[in-house]
Amino acid sequence: TSPRPYNFSAGPAAMPDAVLERAASEMLDWQGSGMGVMEMSHRGKEFGAICTQAEADLRFLLAVPENFHILFMQGGGLGENAIVPMNLSRGTRADFIITGSWSTKSHKEAQRYCTANIAATNAADQHTRLPDPASWRLSDDASYVHVCSNETIHGVEFQELPDLAALGSKAPLVIDFSSHVASRPVDWNRVGLAFGGAQKNLGPAGLTIVIVRDDLLGHALDICPSAFNYKTVADNGSMYNTPPTWGIYIAGLTFQWLRAQTEGELTGMAAMEARNIAKARLLYDFIDASPFYVNKVDPSCRSRMNVPFFLNDESRNDAFLSGAREAGLLQLKGHKSVGGMRASIYNAMPLAGVQALVSYMREFERSHA
Ligand code: PMP
What we know:
This protein is an alpha/beta fold.
């Protein structure tokens, strides 16, 4: 089969060929069971084995400590914007660090459930740099502090998670890691809860991953739906209601694929982090060296996953995109709220895909400058 085009979608996004091929080969009959995964009871032994393995592989990959629960839920990132305050806020106060569109949405939604305080914002910088943690005005009594650790639209990433304890806060840190989950290791010493939709780096839309420290369970507001009560979900091993079985299966295949990745001596998350740094550097270095393209994000917090960029002459946007499609480079159009272009280069994007993009950009510049 001929290689597929490189797909730079921000999500749902490209998946590793090996994962899709494996799923295709098992579509009608999973390992001699006579059933496809979509057709299995979530309570049967076959799916039980798939789910247990997926959870164990994710725990291994992200080095999730024993006192954290891994939950497979539904509702997506925006669902979690309500589910987190319903479970963690106790109706009191929570702090939000505004760094782009997604944290802005999280803050707005939380206002329905608690006093949502903006402790810092980079809005005045058009979301192009992170507010210095030393300047955050954290509440003494916050039930949690929310951060979007990778802003998918603005292309801003926390290269290092904030250390709330060092900032004098006792509140647990909540991270929305939807768009960089499993692209690098997680420092769990600094995190109380992490959530993310699967549809960028892990699998199909419909699966939401929540990783939560056990002391944060059991404080949900009465209005919290049972299916979204973390304690209920945890007590039932993510089987309180029917979990997104297909998503868990595909994410499980992706976890196995990730575990097997290597870069030199490195494996798993360390390998992916090294590869993702190399991919991002190649693209940012090219953009910075060119007078034809621009990325406006401060180099200290540029996302390794989502690279928004602009042509200096925006009248060439359509020509750029149609030429890219012809060159086998798909879905490079930027988010409508910021315009321009965006190359999302998640785990499934090989270095060769970024090299192909840079070659195309160089050639487009040469022929249009
Ligand atoms: N948070 C982030 C960082 C995202 O990138 C997205 C989706 N682009 C969301 C939340 C929303 O996720 P969903 O569409 O699954 O609700």
